[in-house]
Design brief:
It is a single chain. About 35% of the residues lie in helices and about 20% in strands. By secondary structure, it is of the alpha/beta class. The radius of gyration is 23 Å and the shape is globular. It starts with a strand and ends with a helix.
């Protein structure tokens, strides 16, 4: 059977794909940019890839007609201010496209929407569900609250707060109740729901056995990590202050923080239901979900991360448009040095960023990340998904990986920090020589002034990094 997987390179899609292949299904992966989709070699025989932008009705023709079912895993929450409009348009285009296929069943992963007053984010998810329900297929909607798993936005935010703040003076929405669920259980529900007639044309809430306040979730995380934390709530923190609180302390973007704060005022507790019995899934407790997450992190087996989504930064284009570094009208810093050990240098390059850092002038990199965060950028807190593996589309601190090929010894990064222009950083090994090139395409006079103002720091940082990589 042939299944369409939308959002195939997203946090959920990357984890669901190998499970579907293991079940003997051929998976048609829908992505906006083929250059940032790199499935494991073991899966490629059972996978085909189509490039589709669900905001563009014209690209719907790329979806094959002979698909039997589909997963709808698309959202635009952190992409733009009008994400509700974008989500609805995507759902409408998807629904129309499915009418031209033989798809019998669609499974949609949404949010828990049981309260009368919903946040914009949750109201948008409900509107998408209503749009999908008008399709020519059977629809099953699985509604989840907080998803706990290595790399998930919720997990990383909780982790940032608990591990960085011994004492928290937090907004009163920390007392709102929710029902978290582990990522492994979410994948099980998605897997077992497909083509199950008992679930057709219905929606179900999925959650773990624990109903907790956000404060209790933070305290539970601290206990699992063996940390002592003091958390106090205050009633005077406005939504905007709450958003800034999350934004500056955690690795989330400001728009995502705003959407999360809005949703965190709404209880996301499951309605009574029988989906656990129908599918034979017994979700893990919050504590067990946390322990599983850290097992994956310690073993470097984080499959996907919310940070790898292009919409988490300012870069929102196909990678192909930026792989060829421009020359006209650009300012460059080119350096080269003979290396002692080619393989060792490649390994160092592939370890850049995250906990490893940038090998030289670390305090300057951190300062640049702090300034970027203060100006509304992504900062350095995103880190990286895997400590020594890089793929096109991965987030790498305030860079985005455009091209990564160890055999060629070439890594190309595109800047996502706030800049008066566009910037690239390239590393390339050739005949035992490491070439390091920083390219900046300024935007107007401010761009040129920026470049010349930071040139003294480039001489210090880029030279030191080159020597550290080569020796």
């Amino acid at each position: 059977m042939k299944i369409l997987l939308t959002g195939a390179n997203g946090y959920i899609g990357k984890r669901l794909l190998p499970v579907l292949v293991k079940n003997g299904l051929h998976v048609v992966c829908c992505v906006r940019d083929k250059n940032r989709f790199d499935p494991p070699e073991s899966l490629r025989e059972h996978v085909s890839v189509v490039e589709v932008d669900f905001l563009s009705a014209e690209s719907m023709s790329n979806i094959p007609q002979d698909i039997d079912g589909a997963y709808y895993l698309i959202h635009s929450m952190s992409n733009a201010r009008n994400y509700q409009e974008l989500e609805l348009r995507s759902a409408e285009n998807f629904t129309k496209a499915m009418a031209n296929t033989q798809a019998k069943h669609v499974v949609y992963l949404s949010g828990i929407v049981n309260e009368q007053t919903l946040s914009k984010h949750l109201a948008s998810r409900k509107a998408v569900e209503e749009t999908l329900a008008q399709g020519s297929f059977h629809l099953t909607t699985l509604r989840a609250g907080i998803i706990i798993g290595s790399g998930s936005a919720s997990f990383e935010i909780i982790r940032d707060l608990v591990e960085k703040l011994p004492v928290m003076v937090a907004p009163k929405w920390l007392l709102t109740r929710c029902q978290p669920i582990g990522i492994r259980d979410v994948i099980s529900f998605l897997e077992k729901s497909l083509f199950n007639p008992k679930l057709f044309d219905q929606n179900f809430d999925i959650g773990g056995p624990d109903i907790l306040t956000y404060k209790e979730m933070l305290e539970g995380f601290a206990r699992v990590r063996g940390l002592k934390r003091w958390i106090y709530t205050v009633p005077v923190m406005t939504p905007r202050l709450s958003s800034y609180w999350l934004y500056f302390i955690t690795s989330t973007s400001y728009r995502l923080a705003t959407a999360l704060v809005s949703s965190m005022k709404v209880e996301v507790v499951c309605r009574p239901g029988n989906i656990n019995q129908i599918l034979g899934v017994e979700p893990a407790s919050y504590k067990e979900a946390l322990q599983r997450s850290f097992t994956a992190i310690d073993a470097h087996k984080t499959v996907s991360s919310w940070k790898d989504s292009l919409v988490s930064g300012r870069f929102d284009h196909n990678l192909t448009e930026f792989i060829k570094v421009p020359e006209y009208g650009c300012l460059t810093d080119k350096r080269s040095l003979k290396v002692n050990d080619t393989q060792q240098t490649i390994d160092k390059i592939w370890n850049l960023g995250g906990e490893t850092g940038w090998y030289y002038g670390t305090w300057l990199w951190k300062l640049r990340g702090l300034l970027d965060k203060m100006w509304g950028g992504v900062g350095l807190r995103r880190g990286r998904t895997h400590p020594d593996q890089l793929s096109p589309g991965d987030a790498l601190d305030f860079w985005r990986v455009l091209y990564a090929n160890k055999a060629e010894g070439r890594l190309l990064l595109f800047a996502e920090m706030k800049l008066p222009g566009e910037a690239w950083l390239e590393f390339q090994l050739h005949d035992g020589v490491l070439f390091q090139t920083a390219t900046f395409r300024p935007k107007g006079i401010w761009g040129r002034l920026y470049w010349y103002s930071v040139m003294p720091f480039h001489g210090f940082v880029f030279s030191g990094m080159l020597h550290a990589l080569a020796k």
